[in-house]
Design goal:
It is built from 10 helices and no strands. By secondary structure, the protein is an all-alpha fold. It is globular, with a radius of gyration of 19 Å.
Length: 194
């Protein structure tokens, strides 16, 4: 069969949907107003991939990044239409805890305190830094895929991730230095200087 054969590309899209549909859907759920909006955008994303003649000629990592970029762009379009933005909660990207920890009140309290502290620290990062961390750690994407999604060079993403992680470590170790980094949700003084 030829690479542009609709049945071949349809099977390739099916395989990609099985590999990435769940993560993309989780991403869309955190960035849309309803489950239905997330489902619609997911379907639109894969429909666009099916209609794109050059899609099957891309390597697998480029296809993955392409899907994420299209999904992200469709979310942005949806926000522009609705003029509403919903923040993803830490609980939605958090790993499930084990059964033993779930029943231990002390462990639950410690985990909640830790999650609250991390959430507070994340609030001091810029929206771009938060998005990059969400894509890397929440959705387990590689720097190359994040770069393609965000329209940046891979080295830029690596540098930004490294600096952001160093900043978070610094804030975690020295919580008193948080006042040096501005209000939550605004870029830190350190990132403004760069």
């Amino acid at each position: 069969m030829q690479p542009n054969d609709p049945s071949t590309s349809g099977r390739a899209i099916e395989e990609l949907f099985e590999q990435h549909g769940e993560k993309l859907f989780a991403f869309l759920l955190t960035h849309t107003l309803s489950r239905e909006d997330a489902e619609d955008i997911l379907v639109e994303t894969f429909t666009v991939a099916l209609a794109e003649t050059r899609f099957t000629q891309l390597c697998e990592s480029e296809q993955t990044a392409w899907l994420w970029r299209v999904a992200r762009n469709k979310v942005v379009d949806e926000f522009r239409k609705a003029s509403v933005r919903r923040k993803a909660s830490l609980e939605q990207t958090d790993e499930p805890i084990s059964e033993d920890e779930r029943h231990d009140p002390e462990q639950m309290a410690l985990r909640q305190d830790e999650a609250r502290q991390v959430h507070d620290l994340l609030a001091h990062l810029s929206a771009q830094q938060q998005e990059m961390l969400r894509l890397r750690f929440g959705y387990d994407l590689r720097c190359r895929e994040i770069a393609l999604i965000m329209g940046k060079r891979e080295t830029t993403v690596r540098t930004m991730l490294s600096r952001t992680m160093n900043l978070l470590r610094q804030l975690y170790i020295h919580p008193s230095s948080i006042s040096d980094y501005g209000e939550p949700g605004t870029p830190s003084r350190q990132s403004k200087e760069r």
